[in-house]
Specification:
Blueprint (H helix, E strand, L loop, with lengths): L9 E6 L4 E11 L2 E12 L2 E12 L4 E10 L2 E9 L5 E3 L2 E2 L8 E4 L7 H7 L6 E3 L2 E4 L6 E4 L2 E8 L2 E8 L4 E7 L5 E4 L3 E3 L2
Parallel strand pairs: 9-11
Antiparallel strand pairs: 1-2, 1-17, 2-3, 3-4, 4-5, 5-6, 6-7, 7-8, 10-13, 11-12, 13-14, 14-15, 15-16, 16-17
Length: 194
């Protein structure tokens, strides 16, 4: 089974190609999981936005809650996603049946959230799994279901690699992770800066 070292106290990514910007996160251990506090800012297609988030993960790295706040020229927005850890969700307190079966939150604005399914699934080399996620758009915090897939590839210079696919966005690429299971390189989207 794949193992990871504990996450660092902080990490950061520089957005590439698709947008210009930066993401910074802080990790705080909880008695039964992990709290991740972050902020990502960007200019994308001539529009600026900021997304602040606080995500709580259980001991298996399944998302239990995600509180997001965004700012853009269109104004401010907030949203709260809550999960029972077994694939049932509430969005701002209302049941969200379209997310049934999702165990992870995936933020369009974030490179960090691709760490959640990798940690949770702990795939061995050659193994693969679907990882549907509650996907939150950056500009308006709209919540959608995202079908995605991870396949563990052979390590490269001691770093884990995964073939990642999100067919609805026509995305298929190889993601490179460090020993703590955080993305180092997401082609066309982000590269680790710290």
């Amino acid at each position: 089974m794949t193992t990871f070292t504990p996450p660092p106290g902080t990490a950061a990514w520089r957005h590439l190609a698709a947008r210009t910007g930066f993401e910074v996160v802080y990790f705080r251990p909880l008695p039964d999981g992990l709290r991740v506090e972050g902020c990502t800012t960007a200019v994308e297609d001539g529009r600026t936005w900021v997304v602040d988030y606080v995500i709580e993960l259980d001991a298996s790295w399944a998302t239990r809650s995600a509180r997001l706040a965004s700012r853009s020229a269109e104004g401010r927005r907030q949203i709260l996603l809550e999960s029972d850890g077994a694939g049932r969700w509430r969005v701002d307190g209302a049941p969200a049946s379209w997310l049934d079966g999702c165990l992870d939150v995936d933020l369009e604005s974030s490179a960090l959230t691709n760490a959640f399914p990798v940690h949770r699934m702990r795939l061995d080399v050659g193994a693969a799994s679907p990882a549907p996620a509650a996907f939150v758009r950056a500009a308006d915090l709209a919540v959608e279901r995202l079908e995605q897939h991870y396949a563990r590839l052979a390590d490269e210079e001691g770093r884990q690699r995964y073939a990642y696919a999100a067919p609805v966005f026509d995305v298929a690429c190889h993601l490179l992770y460090d020993g703590s299971g955080l993305v180092l390189d997401y082609p066309g989207l982000a590269i680790r800066a710290a």
